Amino acid sequence: MLAAVLAVSVLVILVASVAIKAAGAFSWDFFTQPQATFGESGGGIAPAIVGTIVLVFWATVMAVPMGVLVAIYVSEFAGPRAARTVRVALDVLNGVPAIVVGIFVFGLLVVGHGQSGFYGSFALAILMIPMVSRATQEVLALVPRSLREASLGLGISRWRTVVSIVLPAAIGGIITGTILAVARAAGETAPLLFTSSIAANSVSWDASQPLQSIPLTIFTYSESPSPQDHQQAWAAALLLIVFVLIASVTARALFAWRRRRTGVDAGQP
Amino acid sequence: MRPGDLLFRAVTALAAFAAVALVVGIAYEVVRQAAPAIAHFGLAFIWNTTWNPITRDFGAGAFIVGTLVSSFFAILLAAPLAIAIALFLTELAPRWLRGPVATLVELLAAIPSVVLGLWGILVLGPFLAGTIEPWLSKWLGWLPLFSGSPSQAGMLNAILILTIMIVPIVSSITRELFLRVPRELREGSLALGTTRWEAIRGVVIPYCGPGIAAAIILGVGRAVGEAIAVTQVIGGGTTLHRSLFAPADTLASKIASSYQGASTKLEGESVLYLAAILLVIALLTNIAAQVVVRRAEKRGVL
Question: What is the ipTM of this complex?
Answer without folding.
Answer: 0.90
